[in-house]
Amino acid sequence: MEKQKDDWTLTEALHYEHGRGDPFAAAVRSTRMPMIITDPNQPDNPIVFANMSFQDLTGYGRDELIGRNCRFLQGPGTDRQTVASVRKAIAQGNDASVDLLNYRKDGTPFWNALYVSPVRDTAGTIRFFFASQMDITDRIDRQDRVSREKAVVEAEVAKRVSELREAVEAQQLLLHEVDHRVKNNMTMIGSILRMELRAAGDAKTARMLRLMMSRVDAISTVHRNLYQDIDVTRFDIGSYAVGIASDLAQHSAGSHLRVRADLHRAEIPAGQASALGLVVNEILNHMVQARSEASDRCLDVSAQAEGSRVQLTFRISNAQLEHTEDSYSPSGVAEQIITRLASQSHTSVDWKKSDAGDLQVTLSITRDLS
Q: Does the domain at residues 2-135 carry the CATH identifier 3.30.450.20?
């Protein structure tokens, strides 16, 4: 820093015709970077030195520059706050570095990377202000172009987001309408079955109608759970199974049935929901309706998923089935529903009964993730 001060001391009382024998002044004079020196000890801090690069940059000759304050380079587009910050730095004797819009003699604007620094003598008194300039118009133009292009892209993105939001809202309205109509249809079917049940003349017919009502209710529950979720493309088969088991437990006759659940998130695609919902309903109906002399039974429901596989397991205690030891799965219509819909839904069903009379059914579901 002392060397720098000594160099500036060599240019003491510098004027445009001075410093010709001074190596430092010669360097400032010949550099390709536009430079000026102003004298704050004169009124209005005028320019006292301007090298040829500065003259080329601004279009002004030496005689038009010397003795003038550099504010004449400002114009209608010059930011006043930036000018005020430079003025404040000069008043306080500080450095200033700003990008400022200036104007050449012919009126054309250019962006000026301005750096201003005070030059002090050995006593610390400010003798001059040194200012360097650099034409950064190309850089600012590129930045402006990038900003404009970014604004265009952001506007297009905002437009697309708005269109997608409107499309989603329209889809939601459509889904609500479909949901409403399906609910009405399910309610109508249920009402018809109940009317038939009341008019049934024998126990066998009544039992068949109750089974039909149970199947309609199962599909209704699938639909209700599916359309109540935010994501209508996924269906949590574990939560659904617990709901069906709890409803059946409340209406089970002859003994108290407790339902215990061990659930992990086990989602299947919506396209598999209705078929597997009916399969689960048929299996749980068969398990719950099994005869038992026990006053207290327990139905365990567990669900877990890994990759493309979902495993759903039901286990009921004290299941005294009416069939032989080797025939503990449903028969008739229930068997056909389970077999056909399980195959359709890429699901295998495994039935096991322990010596203690516990019945376990495991569904291995291959999720159709396509």
A: yes
Tell me if residue 251 falls in helix, strand or coil. Answer: coil
The pLDDT of 172-197, averaged and rounded, is 77
Q: CB-based burial of residue 229 (10 Å sphere; 0-12 exposed, 13-18 middle, 19+ buried)?
A: middle
Sorted by where each begins, the domain ranges of the chain are 2-135, 139-228, 233-370
Maximum average pLDDT range among 111-120, 205-214, 221-230? 111-120
Q: Which residue reads 């003349």 in tokens?
A: 201
Q: What is the pTM of this model?
A: 0.51
Q: What is the CA radius of gyration of the chain?
A: 44
DSSP 45: -
235-256 mean pLDDT: 82
| CB within 8 Å of 327: residues ≥ 6 apart | 321
User: Under a CB-based contact definition with an 8 Å cutoff, are residues 367 and 309 in contact?
Assistant: yes
Under the banding of pLDDT at 50, 70 and 90, the label for residue 12 is very low
Of residues 138 and 287, more confidently modeled? 138
Return the structure tokens found at 368.
């159709």
| DSSP assignments along 266-323, one per residue | -EEEHHHHHHHHHHHHHHHHHHHTSB---SEEEEEEEEEEETTEEEEEEEESS-B-SS
User: Taking the C-alpha atoms of 182, 188, 191 and 193 in order, what is their torsion angle to the nearest 10 degrees?
Assistant: -80
Q: Which CATH number fits domain 233-370: 2.60.120.200, 3.30.930.10, 3.30.565.10, 2.40.50.140?
A: 3.30.565.10
